[in-house]
Amino acid sequence: MDELSEGYLRIKAERVTQLLDLVGELSLSATTVIQHPRVRELEELDGALHRLENLIRELQTLSSGLRLVSIGTVLKRMQRLVRDLSHQTGKSLELIIEGGEVQVDKSLVDQLHDPLVHLIRNAVDHGIEPPDERMAAGKPPTGRITLTAVQRGREVHITVADDGRGLNRQAILERAREMRLVAPDEEPDDQTVWRYIFHSGLSTVYQVSSLSGRGVGLDVVQATIRALQGRVLVDTSPGRGTWITLCIPITLAFLDSLVTGLRGRLYAIPIDVVREIIKPSENQVVRNTADNSETIRVRDELIPVRRLSRFYNEAGSERPLAEQMLVLVNTTDGPVGIPMDEIIGQQSVTVKPLQGLSSSVRGGAAYALLESGEVAIVLDCEQVGK
Fold first, then answer.
1. Which whole number is the average pLDDT over 25-39?
2. Pairing of strands 293-298, 301-304
């Protein structure tokens, strides 16, 4: 049936992107007018201004939705990969896809292909056993890989699961010790060990094959997902398999964020990772004189503090924590406290990628256009929290 008769129009993705840019500019211009002191004095305009703000928010939501596409387009492309890997390895493989109708920003979908390829290749090579080994373990000879996409709030979770042997904790830990990622006498918890597999150069396979053994792949997954302002979760069970979940925002066009200020610079923190904001007292601060690190005691929980000045190699003139506001954010390594001089407030900001010289900004995920017309760095809290 002809698309026009069904009420559909084909529009180039770049035109939708241009529309999003214009909506962002409209929002900034309208906010400048709305916040102007003289306009605020005109009480008869209160209703019109409130209506204008609501219309702009609706326009942002509608326009960002135009760029949403079904994630099944990239998930189905993995079917051929699995068939090729089956022939290449001699392993019998089955791919199951669930949740292909979930919608994500097209700009994000385009960047999911390589991470999914790396995860599936890794699952086939490291996780799924040969048919005879599977049958000896009481498993069906055909290994199963499941790709699942579900929407959870403002995020989409894409899980790559296999029913293989699971991660080898001891092998990963020994390799991490060889690479001096962990001290010889240190015994990290399971989640810390699983995160080592995303470290560049770490591989428990010493024989290089066409699939693995080079120590590259999963570090690319971590870097790509972080660039999309997402995170990676790992779960595994010996003999039952491994589940790796990529958590990404539905869209990056507009971001609800907490806008903060520090030493004359502006930072936007994604509101979804903000746990709480506190004004610490001096007796809550715990200092380690050995490495000059700081932690904050919050309701019997010790939370590490990460000062941006040290992160940017600008240590030396930091204010005491008791004189600052502390933004507690959630990361995959646990909560982290980031000191700020001021909390400006919550804003829906227009997000743009870091490009050119700004692409090397440490801890920056993107830049945000604020209601005031100023520019803020969108913090990558995962990177800052390391």
1. 79
2. antiparallel
